[in-house]
UniProtKB/TrEMBL annotation:
GO terms for cellular component: plasma membrane. Its main location: membrane. Pfam families: SSF. It is found in: Membrane. It comes from the Bacteria. The chain crosses the membrane at residues 12-33, 45-71, 77-98, 141-170, 177-202, 228-244, 265-290, 302-324, 358-380, 392-411, 418-437, 443-461, 495-519, 525-548. It comes from Bacteroides intestinalis. GO terms for molecular function: transmembrane transporter activity. Keywords: Membrane, Transmembrane, Transmembrane helix, Transport. It is a multi-pass membrane protein. This is Sodium transporter. InterPro entries: Na/Glc_symporter_sf, Na/solute_symporter, Sodium:Solute_Symporter.
Length: 554
């Protein structure tokens, strides 16, 4: 069935308001950034609830509404089962590692590696990790580019370039504070609009009962090849490693004030994935009935949205999809820039660099990183598209990097040689296995995992010399002791006031956007629900204002 997916004039007005809102946030928080610590981790003063929202928004992108929606279209609720792999990854990872990462006191996720292993391991992890993050984010930017080309007249190249420029500029201006505030606003917009589409799509197919009656085979949690136990087990393990070696995830532990806040941040992130995954993917499950002749399953979510949502409301949906990827890329750009500034520039070229100098380098490195990702994203199509490129890059690099990085913070015995051999040999094994067509993905991943674990813990590398042993013992002694309450940073009243003002303005503008776009569509379910979403956003703004005033009085 041929469908013309095209935004209308009212949609562009909604997108314009959203862009102005994001620009105002970026410019407003640029003046907060006085040093590199504030730029990269907010000086450890990011409230844990806001860090949770930033973490949640940073761990997925439009890729979810493309790749996972494709699974939902073809196989149904198993897409939710697959995406729920994020829940144990976040909860177990934060409870096990969150407090330890916060106690390191680091600015970058791999800063501790020099003390844990050696300078060589730190540098290898830096360069290989930067390469992986560049490749991964090229895929993300490519995905939003494809999404934009479907609903606008823009070519893929221009869609990627414009998106890349917007993301890069926002990050240069405001660093982690801009990422945090924008993610909070984008979270509100994303949740509200997806909650609008869910009931609209369900009504179209006769509700949940209609789905069970018409496509019962898709309404099981383990349908299709991705519902097989072995496949799911490997995928869950893979996600556990991938998320906990993710620099963006680790950085969020540095942003909050103490270990307790770090653990709460990770647990709440997992809960958000648990609750909102069905909300995100059930419309894609229903899409197999709404648009049954769709040629490309990965466009199921956007196809349902543009078919069922009226003009203006669809513009908000487009903005929310862009926002999801923007939050993810913002967080990634920030952490890559932090690694380059601290682990490359300061460590190798200017150890005595002043904070202002580091801040300049941070912003220039963000610009370079953004440019590289933007240019590289244009060529992702040559790898077979977003899914194939992501599968290839993850299969080769994730496990070899993740094991020394994640297990190094809990295991004392493996030394620098073990880490270097695990990384180098693991990457080679990954390349070879992914090049063999007769080896399926789950078996290749299992073999690579076993090889890397054996190499990392193999007792043939000799003992650490006394100097290294003392250094490692000091690190683990520090990791076992809670942060001194006197050294726990606190957020200033000036920051709190600015946060509240921007949040209130954002909620009011978001509410006004939903209400304004609903007025021409009040006779439709989408318009009525959009009106409710707008009113809810305004009520939330009022509630926050009351709570803030009561807190000030105390």
């Amino acid at each position: 069935m041929a469908m013309e997916l095209q935004l209308q004039e009212l949609d562009y007005w909604a997108i314009g308001v959203y862009i102005l809102l994001m620009a105002g946030i970026g410019l407003s928080f640029g003046w907060f950034i006085k040093d590199v610590g504030a730029y990269f981790k907010g000086n450890g003063t990011i409230p844990w609830v806001m860090a949770t929202v930033t973490n949640f928004m940073g761990l997925f992108s439009t890729f979810v509404f493309v790749a996972y929606a494709g699974i939902a279209y073809e196989y149904g609720l198993v897409s939710v089962t697959v995406f729920w792999s994020t829940v144990p990854a976040c909860i177990i990872g934060s409870l096990w590692l969150g407090g330890r990462w916060r106690r390191t006191g680091c600015v970058t996720p791999i800063e501790y590696l020099e003390q844990r292993y050696s300078f060589s391991v730190r540098e290898i992890m830096t360069w290989v990790g930067l390469l992986v993050r560049l490749l991964d984010n090229m895929v993300r930017l490519y995905a939003i580019g494809v999404f934009i080309t479907v609903v606008t007249p823009l070519s893929l190249e221009w869609a990627i370039i414009i998106s890349g420029v917007i993301v890069t500029l926002f990050n240069i201006i405001g660093g982690i504070w801009t990422v945090t505030i924008m993610s909070t606003v984008q979270f509100v917009i994303l949740i509200l609009i997806t909650c609008v589409l869910l009931p609209v799509s369900l009504r179209e197919v006769g509700g949940i009962g209609g789905l069970y009656q018409q496509i019962p085979e898709k309404m099981t949690w383990f349908n299709g090849p991705k519902g097989a136990f072995f496949w799911l087990a490997i995928y869950y393990v893979m996600t556990m490693i991938k998320y906990n070696e993710n620099w963006t995830f680790i950085q969020k532990f540095f942003c909050v004030k103490d270990e307790k806040a770090a653990k709460k941040m990770g647990v709440l992130t997992g809960i958000l994935f648990l609750v909102f995954t069905p909300i995100f993917l059930i419309p894609a499950v229903a899409s197999s009935l709404i648009v049954p002749e769709l040629e490309n399953p990965e466009m199921s979510y956007i196809s349902v949205a543009i078919r069922l949502l009226p003009a203006g409301i669809m513009g908000i949906m487009f903005s929310s999809m862009f926002a999801a990827t923007m939050s993810s890329l913002n967080a990634e750009y920030n952490v890559m820039s932090s690694v380059f500034t601290k682990d490359v520039y300061q460590r190798l070229f200017n150890t005595e660099a002043a904070e202002k100098r580091l801040l300049v380098v941070a912003r220039w490195s963000t610009l370079v990183i953004g440019a590289l990702i933007t240019v590289g994203a244009i060529y992702i199509e040559g790898f077979g598209g977003a899914f194939e490129a992501n599968k290839l890059f993850t299969g080769i690099f994730c496990i070899p990097i993740g094991i020394p990085l994640v297990l190094g913070i809990v295991s004392r015995k493996p030394n620098a040689k073990a880490a270097i051999i695990t990384i180098s040999a693991g990457i080679v094994v990954g390349i070879v296995l992914n090049a063999l067509p007769e080896v399926d993905w789950e078996m290749a991943t299992l073999i690579e995992l076993i090889v890397c674990l054996v190499l990392y813990y193999l007792p043939v590398y000799g003992q650490m010399d006394m100097k290294d042993k003392v250094k490692v013992d000091e690190l683990f002694d520090a990791l076992s002791v809670n942060i001194d309450p006197k050294k726990v940073p606190s957020i200033s009243s000036q920051y709190v006031k600015a946060l509240m003002i921007l949040l209130l303005v954002s909620l009011v503008v978001s509410g006004g956007l939903f209400i304004g776009m609903s007025i021409p569509n009040l006779r439709s379910m989408g318009g009525d629900l959009s009106l409710c979403a707008g009113i809810l956003s305004l009520l939330l703004a009022v509630a926050l204002c009351v709570v803030y005033k009561l807190k000030i009085k105390k």
